[in-house]
Amino acid sequence: MSALLWQGPLLTAGGASDPLFPKLVQAINHATEIEISVAFIQPSGLELLLPALEDALANGAQLSILTSDYLLITSPRALRQLLLLAERGARVRLFCCKPDTGFHMKAYIFTRSVDDEQVSGCAYIGSSNISKAALTLSHEWSLRYQFHGEAIPADYRHIREQFLAIFSHSQSLPLNEVLLADYTRRYKAQQATTKQLSMAEAEKEPEIIPNSAQQEALELLAKTRAIGYQRGLVVLATGMGKTWLAAFDVMQIGAHRALFVAHREEILQQAQRTFSWLLPAKSSGLYVGSEKNAAADLVFASVQTLSQTENLQKFAADHFDYIVIDEFHHASGRSYQAILSHFRAKFLLGLTATPERTDQADILALCDHNLVYQRNVVHGIEEGILVPFHYHGLNDPYVNYQEIPWRNGRFEPTALDSAFATQQRAKHILRHWQSLRQSRTLAFCISRRHADFMAEYFCRHGVKAAAVYQGSVLRRNEALQLLEVGKLEVVFSVDLFNEGTDLPAIDTVLMLRPTESKILFLQQLGRGLRQSPDTGKQHLVVVDFIGNHRSFLLKPATLFQDTATKKLAALMQKPPTLADGCYINFAPEVIDYMQQLARAIRNTSIEDLQQLADELGHRPSAVEFFEAGYDVAKVRKAHNSWFELVALYEKDSGFTQFVARNRQFLLRGVETTSMSKSFKMILLRAFLELDGFRNKITVQALAERSWHIIWRHPDWARQDIKADLQSEGAQSPKWLKYWLDNPIKFYCAKDQKDQQAWFRRDGDFFLINFELDVNDIEPLVALVDELIDFRLAQYAKGKGGQQNQQADNSVAILSAPVLPEKTKGPAANVLPFYPDLKIACGHFGQGSPDGAEMQTLPLHYGNLNPERHFIAPAKGNSMNGGKQPVQDGDLLLFEWVTPSSAGSISNNTMAIEQVDAAGDAHYLLREVKKQADGRYLLKATNPNYSDLEASESMRTFARLKAIIDPKDLQLTD
Questions:
Q1: Which of 72, 365, 576, 846 has the highest CB neighbour number within 10 Å of its CB?
Q2: Which residues sit opposite 67 in a β-bridge?
């Protein structure tokens, strides 16, 4: 039987017990042709189907979607997302109804072909439109017609022919920007005049609002622009919503056009989806490879494509109001600089998830050394945006990493792959996973072979496991769906889940491979840190296998936020503390050899550089070396100059000769030139932006460009420029004279230690004053640019001129007590316990919220507040079922429902109060479900108890947070 076809009754009856959604996803994942025709589409339903639809398009499936403007119920947000699917190859049309015609179709048709021959197919035809309610909860009937293997039945042909007929109808118009804008106008007009649409089909879209960290960042971004900054960096840990923040800020400043730049197409597509949810009225397009949508309001561009000169020249300098740089990719450094030199946006926002100054150094330089806001994992956990984590660093004894070749900052892949695919190692991993696991595990592997090997080994030992990678039989969205519903316990992945994908249900992360950089380590850790209300996840378990090689030092270095690995021996003995509920366990043997490795590190400059390169995954730039705390003066003492040290590291004779040819200018003209102000480096940056090594640059153009650059650093400008000149504009004669009398004059004069001046004036032109081979220009620009970043970072730190609005509030990213294995954290939460407030798990029962005792709970229950949280006993067994069974006598952790912490009650387990005619209060625990007609149903998870309908006499007063292990309770005085 084809995997396309669902096994079971032909009728899907809907409701929670027989929803259509999983059947559609299964069919989407195995069809080569997908045809959908529904009257209405809402964002809630489309969001459920999007991952599968996107995977289908990526795997070559043909997708056709038809919806309608009938009653103007379809959401413009949903239509915007459909336009994104059209950009990826889908055919999307809108049936435009006339006054005498309606559109009520609800049909989902899936066909699978092999070698151009149809081998199976199914069609679901019934009453379900695309909304979350219709696909998951509402009582909607859909009848399935299917075939497999035999000749295509006439009825199936007829179904497809009728779909093609309506899809090709003269009223079915291809969805485009013009049609969407017209529909949006009509939709908004109806919303303004109609108080309530048919509740059966329309749904109120939830307001998208910033979380607490995003709100703080937005306020500080507004302040930084008010000060005069045109660029700024925001650091937000994985899972805290970097991309959403950028979209909120684009909306906050009312940008007409925005540019989002990243180094991978998948990141761009995810960002495009996020921006389109928040800003559905704006057109959007990709600018990647051969796909170049330059006319869109929101352009999502790969740095590799956009930085090409012929592409940049298609845009005016002021084309974009707002630019976002998402994670600086070191290998494309010059490409980023080319983009930023070309555009003059009102504001540029740099985004990164890495909290360390070393890793931020390059993108911080792009952002004019303006660190606007920083929030790491600790903050995310404390603010309830992320869940706490329990990290277990275990020994990896069956791989001798010292014997595996180490080249260019990474292990040789083939040798590593062979070392990993052993029964001994797999048995070791399985044993530890079984003792530490929770319900849904994502495991990171080194290769497809490794992922397949691990999945097969786990399956042979009774674990429901699968391997997922680019081209695997099981698609990514399908694996996540199977994980969520419990049909898989572990997904072994290669690269597909490193960044960008939202995986809230993951509660265990299994790290089975070395990570070449801290950012990759953080991305993998971050896959499981998101909150998951649907699964009730309390914390993330991280199981990490650590080998006997210096490269593994980056893990404790990242956990303790200290790049000086020499300090790790001491840090692993007395580390700082972390957010409540988190702890780190290192196996004793891991601590021993980590400390041995840390103590063995020597500290010559070349070894410092090599160590930092291993940690970063690339040759460090001068500013990264500086921000890591290394001594640049020591470099010059041992190697004369920074790039002579780099030449020794690179072992490239051509680079060594290039450095030798240009040594004096790089060293004396840039690296060590005297600087009492920022002016010389500002001048050099303007010179590079104007391509001064190739072109004759006028002093007027140089002064104007310098003015724009220095005023991107308003603190420096106010500090360095004479007060009476600070009101002068870029083209002011007074400004030109001032610039001529200062950096231009000094750069055109010979310093006492120099044999010549490095620049000269020839009339109105500013020119270099030394011989330069034309073939040396491009590499020289890159090296000078690197030194400018370094000198400005030095200047910022020395002058205190760097704006750093949130740095003082930043704490170690993950630093936590290192505990012996299986040791629990100390108790720290003291909460009121109401022994007489018996929350009935049956029918309403009486109780009293009086006579509170104080109880202490350990840290792994989270950061709890006695004014918000309390403990009460359960009475009865109506909730003794489902994913989180509550038994009679269980002690329950609750959070009060207050105006400031109300949130959504639907799909949550709530404590409910009912006051009777005599004024006595009765209490009940039930799962609250909102019905399609707006009423609420109080559901029991034990099938022996009937559900109740909510009434006006009831109110929710607390939300169930956890079931408490009795061993965790201690009575306090």
A1: 365
A2: 94
Whether 331 and 597 have beta carbons less than 8 Å apart is answered as no
This prediction has a pTM of: 0.76
What pLDDT digit, counting tens, does each position of 883-926 carry? 778 888 889 998 887 655 556 677 888 888 876 655 556 788 88
Architecture per CATH, domain 212-352, reads as: 3-Layer(aba) Sandwich (3.40)
Distance CA 425, CA 427 (A): 5
Single out the residue of 969, 955, 780, 946 nearest to residue 891, CA to CA: 969
Helix (H/G/I), strand (E/B), else coil: 759: strand
Domain 11-193: state its class.
alpha beta
Q: 620 and 630 in contact (C-beta within 8 Å)?
A: no
Q: What is the mean pLDDT of residues 9-29?
A: 95
CA dihedral 457, 458, 462, 466 (to 10 degrees): -110
Quote the CA–CA distance of 150 and 165 in Å, as a whole number.
25
Q: What share of the chain is helix, strand, coil (3-state, %, to 5)?
A: 40, 20, 40
Contacts of 541 (CB under 8 A, 6+ apart): 389, 390, 392, 436, 437, 438, 507, 508, 509
- Nearest CA among 511, 470, 472 for reference residue 490: 511
Contact criterion met (CB below 8 Å) for 521 and 558 = yes
CATH H-level, domain 826-971: superfamily: Umud Fragment, subunit A (2.10.109.10)
Strands 759-762 and 441-444: unpaired
The CATH number fitting domain 397-546, selected from 3.50.50.60, 3.40.50.300, 2.40.240.10, 2.60.40.1120: 3.40.50.300
The rounded distance, in Å, linking the Cα atoms of 530 and 502 is 8
What 826-829 contacts at long range (C-beta under 8 Å, 24+ apart), as own/partner pairs, is 826/858, 826/859, 827/856, 827/857, 827/858, 827/859, 827/970, 828/580, 828/856, 828/858, 828/859, 829/580, 829/856, 829/857, 829/858, 829/859, 829/861, 829/862, 829/863, 829/864, 829/869
What is the pLDDT of the chain when averaged over all its residues?
Answer: 86
Per DSSP, the residues of 127-150 read S--BSHIIIIIS---EEEEEEESS
The segment(s) of the chain belonging to CATH 3.40.50.300 are 212-352, 397-546
Spatial distance between the Cα atoms of 672 and 660, rounded to a whole number of angstroms: 16
The angle subtended at Cα 223 by Cα 220 and Cα 227, nearest 5°, is 140
Strands 284-288 and 298-302: parallel
Measured CA to CA, the distance from residue 482 to residue 189 in angstroms comes to 42
Q: Whole-angstrom Cα distance, residue 636 to residue 642?
A: 7
Instruction: Please tell me the distance from the alpha carbon of residue 551 to that of residue 534, in angstroms, as a whole number.
Output: 38
To which residue do tokens 């309403």 refer?
A: 844
Nearby residues of 515 by Cβ (< 8 Å), 6 or more positions away: 521, 524, 554, 555
Distance CA 797, CA 784 (A): 20
Q: What is the pLDDT of residue 809?
A: 37
Where exactly does CATH 3.30.870.10 map onto the chain? 11-193
- For tokens 């119920």, the residue is 73
pLDDT digits (tens, 9 = 90+) for 500-559: 566 889 999 999 988 877 778 888 888 899 999 888 899 999 999 988 777 777 777 777
CA angle 622, 351, 684 (to 5 degrees): 40
Alpha carbons 703 and 736: distance in angstroms, whole number: 6
Q: Which residues contact 632 (CB under 8 A, 6 or more apart)?
A: 622, 625, 626, 642, 790
Residue with tokens 């009754």: 9
pLDDT value, residue 272? 97
Q: DSSP states of 341-385 as a string?
A: HH---SEEEEEE----HHHHHHHHHHTTT-EEEEE-HHHHHHTTS
How far is Cα 217 from Cα 291, in angstroms, rounded to an integer?
A: 33
